[in-house]
Amino acid sequence: EAGVTQSPTHLIKTRGQQATLRCSPISGHTSVYWYQQALGLGLQFLLWYDEGEERNRGNFPPRFSGRQFPNYSSELNVNALELEDSALYLCASSTYTRETQYFGPGTRLLVL
Amino acid sequence: GENVEQHPSTLSVQEGDSAVIKCTYSDSASNYFPWYKQELGKRPQLIIDIRSNVGEKKDQRIAVTLNKTAKHFSLHITETQPEDSAVYFCAVGSGGSGNTGKLIFGQGTTLQVKP
């Protein structure tokens, strides 16, 4: 069974640009979660999508947004990039009824 | 607000010794407690999890204990091996009917197992 996949693996942008990150969940999983892992820090919850709807969001500004597609894949958009947005962005998936989250390999975003 | 404190931040043990990592949390509604292992440059991998209706869970060399009254839980690794070297994260969630989808993570413990 394939795990959670994410693309691209690395992304370099300049301040003020927009970034789009993509995630494909494990087959059969309907929930997708996004986390930010800044260097040397723990994981910070960004967003939770299930069945195409945003179910919860963390303490991040509105320029962090996303969506979930009918095939349950998801994308995270970060607008007006700032230097401090440089981090590893991790996607996780689960079934709706279970709390267990399985992570993808992440997208490393560097903002110059 | 919601908070998870994890200690120690670094831990160095000799191969074969035991390692213990502790976490405390603030939200009494929390009922799901997973532990993740993250090797350098790799994804966090779930190694064990426990729900609030259980006080202890074991899987080979790994065990987790939960004290809901005191709001703390611990990861125990016995007979450590060099391949156990990694960063370990505890997390806290609220599942079931009150599922928020959000896991709140501790700051991580860097475990080094010396051969």
Describe the structure.
Chain A has 112 residues and is mainly beta. Chain A is built from no helices and eleven strands. Chain A has strands spanning 5-7, 10-13, 19-24, 31-37, 43-50, 53-57, 64-68, 74-78, 87-94, 102-103, 107-111. In chain A, a hairpin with a 7-residue loop joins strand 9 (87-94) and strand 10. By secondary structure, chain B is mainly β. Chain B is built from no helices and eleven strands. Chain B has strands at 4-7, 10-14, 19-25, 32-38, 45-51, 56-59, 62-67, 72-77, 86-93, 103-105, 109-114. In chain B, strands 2, 4, 5, 9, 10 and 11 form a six-stranded mixed β-sheet that branches. Chain B is globular, with a radius of gyration of 14 Å. Chain B starts with a strand and ends with a strand. The mean pLDDT of chain B is 93.
Largest interface: A-B, 24 and 24 residues
Radius of gyration of chain A: 13 Å
Rounded mean pLDDT of chain B is: 93
Largest sheet composition of chain B:
6 strands, mixed
Q: How many β-strand stretches of chain B?
A: 11
Q: List the secondary-structure elements of chain B in sequence, H or E.
A: EEEEEEEEEEE
Q: Enumerate the spans of chain B where pLDDT stays under 50 for 5 or more consecutive residues.
A: none
Concise summary:
By secondary structure, chain A is mostly beta strands. Chain A has no helices and eleven strands. Chain A has strands spanning 5-7, 10-13, 19-24, 31-37, 43-50, 53-57, 64-68, 74-78, 87-94, 102-103, 107-111.
